[in-house]
Design brief:
By secondary structure, the protein is α/β, with parallel strands linked by helices. Helices cover about 25% and strands about 25% of the residues. It folds into two domains: about 5-75, Signal recognition particle alu RNA binding heterodimer, srp9/1 (2-Layer Sandwich), CATH 3.30.720; about 85-145, no CATH class. It has three helices and eight strands. The radius of gyration is 17 Å and the shape is elongated.
């Protein structure tokens, strides 16, 4: 029996990081519970103080295919390379100059949203098709491939 997967990000600003990843993946912010127009209305109903409302956020695939992303506030910053990272499949099936151009265009789009381009691995004509390693606004590494 298969299981659902949720990917959890430890971060300083859950709302901002969730909004970034919504743009990267074409996801949507998780809507408030049924019966509430907004998250603030729900959080008011359960008496969550305003200064505690950005301790978590979530993003969902619009069409339901893909994992839920959960963002939880933690006090410490990122201190080392990720041991697990996301590969964002920006150029599936493409090779050569076409692949490179699509990856670069996506990198440029994400940099404009707050990401950073960390390094590139160029195609080698054998096993490596090339990819770009990026950092999200809080420094979590991910790859465009």
């Amino acid at each position: 029996m298969s299981k659902d997967v949720q990917i959890t990000f430890d971060c300083a600003d859950p709302d901002a990081l969730a909004r970034f990843w919504v743009e990267v993946l074409g996801y949507q912010l998780q809507p408030p519970p049924p019966g509430f127009e907004t998250w603030d209305a729900f959080l008011d109903s359960v008496h969550v103080p305003e200064d505690q409302r950005n301790t978590r956020s979530a993003a969902l695939p619009v069409d339901g295919s893909g994992p839920r992303l959960f963002f939880q506030q933690v006090p410490e910053g990122k201190s080392a390379k990720n041991r697990v990272h996301l590969d964002v499949r920006a150029a599936p099936g493409l090779v050569g100059d076409e692949r490179t151009a699509v990856l670069q265009a996506e990198s440029d789009r994400l940099v404009a949203l707050g990401a950073s381009e960390l390094y590139r691995v160029e195609p080698d004509g054998r096993m490596e098709f090339g990819f770009i390693t990026m950092g999200d606004p809080e420094g979590n590494e991910f790859c465009l491939d």
